[in-house]
Structures are given as C-alpha cells and as structure tokens.
Description:
With 282 residues, the protein is an alpha/beta fold. It contains 9 helices and 12 strands.
Amino acid sequence: METCRARELGLCYGVRRALDMLKETSALHGPIETLGPVAHNTILVEELTSLNVKAVNAPQAVTASVVAISAHGVSPETTDELRERGLTIVDTTCPTVARAQQIARVLSDEGFTIVIFGDANHTEVKGLLGWAGPRGIAALATGDLQIDGRNLDIRKVAVISQTTQRIAQFASFAQELCGTLLDGAEEVRIINTLCTATQRRLEAAAELAQDVDVMLVVGGKHSANTRRLAETCDALITTYHIESAKELDKAWFEGKSRIGITAGASTPDSSIEDVERALQAL
C-alpha cells in the first residue's frame, strides 16, 4: 500500500506564527490563557496545555495576567475589555484575518452595509461582525439574510467572506446577492478576503483525490477549513475525516493500493506523521 501526501497540507503560516508567539511568551511569562482555542484542533490544544497555555471561553473567565487572542481574532470591544483590566495581551490573530477585519472597519466607516459570507457562529465571523459594527450581517445563504428585518441600508452594500470559505461558493453567494440587491442598491462592492493558503490546500487535495483509491483528511472535527477539505475530497473519492491515527480502520483500505493524505491548516505535523506510521504498520 502506497501513501501519498497532498503537495500542500497541514499547518498554515498563520497558525505556525500563533504557536511560535505562544511558546515564546510562555517561556518569558509563564502560564498564558487564550480566548478560545488558538485553533480548532484538539491535539494542538493538548500540546499547548502541556506548555502552560490554557484556553478559556470568555474574557470574564481569564485569570492569568497574560491573555492571548487566538488566530481567529476577536472584536475590538473584546480587546478593549481585556486592556481595561490591565492584562498583557498577545495578539496572534492571523494576518489574513486581520486584513479582513480592517477591511470591515473601513467599509463600515464609509457607510456600507457589510454582508459577510460565513458561519455567524464561528469565532472568526463573530470577530468580523464586531469590526463591522451595527452595519454587519453574516450568513451562508442569501435566503438566510434578514437585511430588511435589520433595517440595514441597501443603497451601499459590501460583500466579504470568512477567510476559510471556498472561492466557488463565495462567488456564487456574491452573484446571487447582487441579483437580489440591484433594484435598490446604488453601489455594491465585492472584496476577496479569502485565505490563499486555504485555497491552495483545497486545490492540492482535489488534485490528489483524483489519483488515489481513498483519501484521509486529518484535522479537528470542529475546524472549518478541515471540514471543507473533507467535503471537497468526498465529492471525488471515498474520504475519511479523522483527528488522529487511533481512528483508522483497517477495513477502509482492503483492496486499496494508493492512499491520499491531506490535513487542515491547524493540524500539527506530529498528527500527520502518526497517521503515516499507522498506515505503514497496516
């Protein structure tokens, strides 16, 4: 049985940067608390816990003197709340997310209603909504938008995206939204805030999925970008989304000769290596 890695997979620059910042700060200051997990991967969070980096669910739950903002980012109000408490803040917000936040702020200042293509309950999108202020609204389908119900001005509308969404879905959403707004809109802007690293991983996974018998997607079950990798591969070949090598089932590979492996942007290198070793043992 042959195992093949996607040409791009695993930890992206934003998550690696966040990890390096947390490790450096922990070495200098001791215990750190992060607002939510630094990234959506259980194994990664466990590794950080061993380094005295612990996740808490809300600003009010912070007890350490040093608090880190996760790679997903937070709203300006949350940062202000932490600063008012006199805490030392380590901002590990992914640069791509930070760019989307600044775009949302500028558009809001210019009087645009800001439509965010994304999951309104996702940490990153909650932060983006904070930067957009009262002019912001988020949804994954145009039918779920309640612009009229919110009394939002549709004369000037800007469309941005959660950074880990797929480009085809964002384009489709923006096109459909434009069709529904043109009667009342004077200006519609579409700004590409997608993460290029995520798009490259999706393309590499789809490319590999067409050349293997089974695909394994390694990464957190709550990771948005990992789930999209699994969805992309599953549309092309039998695909299994696992978080660790412990979940592998020998029956999946009976009669299969080429096994493809990809991994989400928050998946540690160690997880990928563990899966490869387990496959070789089979």
